[in-house]
């Protein structure tokens, strides 16, 4: 179901309900990182997902 606009619809719903959103995303997931950057999320810091051993980012969005 990728590239059909469903993610954007769901994200806009969440943005309507909250003033600030946080998410963790694997650093190797370049496609998703690009999506969230287009949606005005910013990388706050990098870390490590202890459950999987994968490097990740914490990204945030704040209502302007």
UniProtKB/TrEMBL annotation:
**N-acetyltransferase domain segment(s):** 1-64
* InterPro entries associated with the record: Acyl_CoA_acyltransferase, GNAT_dom
Supply the name of the protein.
GNAT family N-acetyltransferase
Task: Give the UniProt keywords, A-Z.
Answer: Transferase
Q: Which GO MF term does the entry hold, naming one?
A: acyltransferase activity, transferring groups other than amino-acyl groups
Domain of life of the organism encoding this protein: Bacteria
Natural source organism: Blautia segnis
Q: Which PROSITE patterns match?
A: GNAT (PS51186)
């Amino acid at each position: 179901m990728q590239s059909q606009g469903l993610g954007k619809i769901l994200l806009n719903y969440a943005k309507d309900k909250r003033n600030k959103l946080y998410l963790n995303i694997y650093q190797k997931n370049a496609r998703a990182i690009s999506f969230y950057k287009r949606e005005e999320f910013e990388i706050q810091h990098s870390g490590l997902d202890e459950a999987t051993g994968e490097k990740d980012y914490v990204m945030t969005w704040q209502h302007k």
